[in-house]
Amino acid sequence: MTVRAGREFLAIPGPTTMPDEVLQAMHRPALDIYSDQMINLTDSLMADLGKLFATKGKTYIYIANGHGAWEAVLSNVLSRGDKLLVLESGRFAIGWGAAARMMGADVEVLNGDWRRAVRPAEVEARLRADKEHSIKAIVVTQVDTASGVFNDIEAIGMAIKAADHPALYMVDTVASLGCMPYEMDKWGVDVTMSGSQKGLMTPPGLGFVAANDRALAVHKTAGLRTPYWDWSEREGEEHYRKYAGTAPVHLLFALRKAIDMLFEEGLENAYRRHELLAEAVRRAVAVWAEGQVLSFNIQEAAERSNTVTTVLMGGKQDPAALYRYCKEHCGVILGAGIGDLTGKAFRIAHMGHVNAPMVLGTLGVIEVALAALKIPHGRGGIDAAVQWLGEKVSPSSETQL
Ligand SMILES: *Cc1c(COP(=O)(O)O)cnc(C)c1O
After folding, report:
1. Measured from the CA of 146, which atom of ligand 1 is nearest?
2. How far is the CA of 358 from the centre of ligand 1 (A)?
């Protein structure tokens, strides 16, 4: 017997659930890519991406996923043999570094740990030791979607400044943009990249990059430039050069609608919504953890992301059984553990188009699965999540979930 019917619910960290309005925005004919309408659409999106990144720098839209946007960044600012410092806190900065190595960079990993955030003091110490300034750029993720960690991008930026080191500071916001505060210019970030299919509620297929003047200056002499990714090539007058060819018209319609929805809600409200729903998830997980089988992957509460929660499963229990039960019996797709956590964890995504019923429903289904599979867990996880929301989302508050 199953209680699955109708729509499957994706609780995976990308692609995420898309609002009906975003899906419907694509259900129309393409535009003439040389029309004013098209040019205005592109201009509006580039300006709004600047608002999301909080930068006065230049923005670029690539027909690419996050891996493509990584390559876009690297090819525009690095030359063969340049040293890149990768700040480890899970899988994704490491992946960005692996791409750089394949492209000919000299990649050094500042070893971190899958269970905690990058420590700014360790970054500062490494940069102070680099007296010849051989490190040309530093890469880090704001949220690592594998470990579930949240890195303090502002604090790392201050550490770089304190070391008085000229390396470009480059940040991956694929799993956080539109969900958690981000201030590229204020935090001293030189280059930021992101993607469409997570917090931005848009189909996979668009990659975004923002670059400030320092990055654009380095770009002038970068040796790894190639025609498709090249920033200068995209500065040409003709509209098609913004995309190095045909514009991804329908994805742009979707993105326009998604950003409109986000701005209508208000970014601050969207951040608050993510914070409240993430804490509801954490309240439930904390209670389940009393059964001594489940636990948070990220040990420090303050370092847990508001967009994805990675839950370790011990006691010889198999997270794949939980995953299968949720999918096959209840129609909820959880994220599996990936990288070092393959077979040891599951992930609950709470990013983008998420609301109270989606999150409470997902938690409820996990609790059903824990009961059905007789996985030891503390009782009352859902109640803890409900009490939390009941307290914070009071009838008099402006907060809507
Ligand atoms: C998903 C993700 C990526 C990779 O994006 P793709 O679109 O799958 O290539 C990169 N960085 C982070 C932090 C991610 O969560």
Report:
1. 15
2. 22
Residue with tokens 């993510």: 274
Q: Where are the domains of the chain?
A: 9-16+266-392, 31-263
> Could you report the per-residue pLDDT of 17-65, keeping only the tens digit for each?
999 999 999 999 999 999 999 999 999 999 999 999 999 999 999 999 9
CA 237 / ligand 1 centre spacing (Å): 31
Give the tokens for residue 149: 């960690």
229-240 pLDDT, tens digit per residue, is 999 999 988 889
pTM higher than 0.85: yes
Q: How far is the CA of 218 from the centre of ligand 1 (A)?
A: 25
Atom 8 (ligand 1): residue with closest C-alpha? Answer: 66
Task: Tell me which residue has its CA closest to atom 5 in ligand 1.
Answer: 66
Domain 9-16+266-392 falls under CATH 3.90.1150.10: yes
HSE toward the beta carbon, residue 386, CA cutoff 13 A: 9
Q: Are 50 and 57 in contact (CB under 8 A)?
A: yes
Which listed CATH number (3.40.640.10, 3.10.20.90, 3.40.50.970, 3.30.300.30) goes with 31-263?
3.40.640.10
118 DSSP assignment: P
